[in-house]
C-alpha cells in the first residue's frame, strides 16, 4: 500500500479517506486543508482522468510545496491551488469559477512540518518565536495575543480550548511572566507552575489552547462545516479528520443532525430534517501498522457523512465563543 508521507508532512488515513470520500470518480473534490498535499495525491490516484481537486491552505509555504509535489506526480493540470482559510472555501471556489462539488475533506489541526519547525512557534519542545499563526503574514502572534489578554480572558481560553484544570492559576502565572518572545520562555513558566508528573500534559494543553485561539480554529471549523453543506451535491460526501475532542465533538454533532447542538429535528412524519447522513456512527481510527510508522496518527478520528436532499435554513453567522 502506497505511503503518501513526505518529510514535510505525514498525512493520516489516506487510503481510507479516498475509499470513503469518492462517490464519483470523475467528480470535483476539495481538500480544504491541503498541508503537504498527501491526501490530494491519494485522491488523484484513486480518481478518474477527468476528475479535479481543489486544495486550500492559508499557509503559502504549504501551497507551494503541495503544488510542486502534484506537478511532479503529473496532476498539475487538474489541481486547483487556492490560498485562504478553509472557512472561506465557498468564496474561494466561487471566485475560481467552481460550483458545487462531489466531496470535501477537512484534516484539522497542525501539519507535521509546522510542529517540527521551531520558527513556527507551535511546539513547546522546540525553541523559536512564540508565533503559532497558520498564516504568518496575517493576524496577531501568540506573543502579541498574550500581551493583550486579561487574566479572566486568558483563563477562559485555557479552560475552553485547552481544558486546563488549573486555568486561573496558570493564567495568572503566564501573565506575570510577560512579555514573551519565545516558546521556551512560556514553557519554562508552565514547568515552574505544575508538579513534574503533570508538566507534559499542561504544556500540551496550554499550547493547544493558544494555537486554537490565535487561529480562531473552532469558529473556523463551524463556518467550514456550514459551507460544506452548501457546496456538496446530494449524494456527495464530507470527510473530517479531527485530533481532539474540541474538534471531534462539533463535527460529530453536526454530521449527525445538521446542528451544533446535536439535536435531530424531525418533520410531522418523523423524518429527520438533516442535510447529512452520518456514515460513521463510530469514528474511524488508524490501525496499528499506521500508528507504528506515524505516532501522530494515534489521536486521529475520521468521520464521514453523505449529503441528503434536505436544504437547511441559512446560517445565523453567530460565533461559538467571543473573548
Would you write up a description of this structure?
Helix 7 (151-162) packs across helix 10 (199-215). The chain has two domains: 14-112 and 217-307, Rossmann fold (3-Layer(aba) Sandwich), CATH 3.40.50; 115-215, Putative methyltransferase TM0872, insert domain (DNA polymerase, domain 1, Orthogonal Bundle). The protein has helices at 14-21, 38-46, 60-72, 89-95, 112-116, 142-148, 151-162, 167-176, 183-193, 199-215, 217-231, 245-257, 288-293, and strands at residues 28-31, 52-57, 79-83, 101-107, 232-242, 276-278, 301-307. Residues 318-323 have low confidence and may be disordered. It has a seven-stranded mixed sheet, with helices on both faces. By secondary structure, it is of the alpha/beta class. The longest helix is centred in the middle third of the chain and has 17 residues, at 199-215. Helices cover 41% and strands 13% of the residues. The radius of gyration is 20 Å and the shape is globular.
